[in-house]
Amino acid sequence: MKCLNYICTIDDMGEVNDILYQVNYYLFEEVDCSEEEAIKLQEALERKIRVEERKKEVANNCGIYQKNYYLNVRKSKDNSLFDSSDSYIKKDEDIKKHLSKRGFDVISIIDPSEYIKFSNKTHI
Length: 124
Description:
The structure is a single chain. The chain is α+β, with helices and mostly antiparallel strands and 124 residues long. The protein has one domain. 31% of the residues lie in helices and 38% in strands. It has three helices and four strands. A four-stranded mixed sheet has the order 1-2-3-4, sandwiched between helices. Strand 1 and strand 2 form a beta hairpin. The chain starts with a strand and ends in a 9-residue tail after the last helix.
């Protein structure tokens, strides 16, 4: 069975025309796992996305433009180039080139709406 496992986050922060921004790229990879592991990883992914989307909402309400991308990536053969301390994207650098230099290929963008299941229960 295939499921998505969280690897790390890459941040792009800066200021454009006096507006602070932060763009977060959350990297996930497809892994082989049992059904039990798949359920745990799915729940962890849903939690991660809920938390990050909430943080984005708070940042945007505070005047900081924030955008989140969830990427399904594949590690290339030589992954030794990647160092989490070097996870900031340089200004105007393309995310696919940035990841490629660090040993990752982008397979697809994960749509958060597929993973976040909203409850229609009324909370009192």
